[in-house]
Every structure is written in C-alpha cells, then in structure tokens.
Design brief:
This protein is α+β, with helices and mostly antiparallel strands. The protein has four helices and five strands. The chain folds into two domains: 86 residues, Ubiquitin-like (UB roll); 43 residues. Helices cover 33% and strands 17% of the residues. Keywords: Membrane, Transmembrane, Transmembrane helix.
Length: 169
Amino acid sequence: MAKQEGEDPKVNSPRPPPPPPRLEVMCKSLGKTSRFAADTKAGFAVSLINRKLDNGSPFVLHIEAVKDREEPISFGPDAVLVDYGNGWKLQTVTVSDYGGVRQSEHFQQIPRQSSDGSRPAKTASKPDISFLYMAKILVAFVMLFVLGASFTLALENLPKLILFINSFM
C-alpha cells in the first residue's frame, strides 16, 4: 500500500506506553518527598526513609494516607502502598508526632530490610531465660536418655524374646 499524500505520520504512529506508576510519600523528618514504585510494601519504604535520616531526626514509624476532614489510613509493614486518588496524600508518621503521653509507650519496630533487600534483618534481643525454662530443658534431656536406654534394652533382649515365643509354637 502506498502512503497517501498529506497524511501525517504522527497521527498513525502508536503512542508510547505510559510511564510506570509511582507513589510519592512526604517525609516530615527529611522535609522532602520520596518516590516509590507501585506495589512497594510500606515496611520497605519506611526502612529506606529511616536509612536516609540524619542523626537526631525522629524515626519513621509507619506511613499514612491523609485527606482533609477524613480519618487517616495507616499502612502496616506488610501492606502495599496505594494512592487513593484526589486529595489523598501519603505521609510518614514519626515518633515526635505522638505527644508526651504516647511517647512513653514502646512502639513495635518495623523490621528493616537486609542490605540486598531480600528479607528483614534479624535483630538480637536479650533472651529471657528463667529457672523454669532451664528445668524443662534438663527434664527433656533426661527423658531423651531414658527413651534411648529403653530402646537399647529392648533391642538387646529381642533375640531372647523371639526364642521364648518360638518355644511355645
């Protein structure tokens, strides 16, 4: 087919695909906006924002979607960040956002991602080892040896038991 004269090549050319969706989270501690790809988990976003904080800046606890005269929507660490549309903005919530009474509570720390981003890094905590815990472990250890000794005794006497049963047949 031949092109018709006067036909604009821009009209028939396919449109480029739209840019991939992204979400913007306003960070109060940094005073700037962080951008994340769609389907980013809130825990990952919080850990990245916390890594960028200067010393002395309050840590980010979680991310909320806020709108004037609406109840904020909080995102948990495993929730996927979502843009709720017109008027809704994603912003961080920091420790300093909770006034005096609430600051004394212990907030659950959202697990940080490991350096390769694959899974949350484990944090070491002080173990609670009590006397009762140690006693239970000792009893389990003794029971293990008693069970092993009883199986050993049964296996040693198995030939005698077989001979005894065969003598009646």
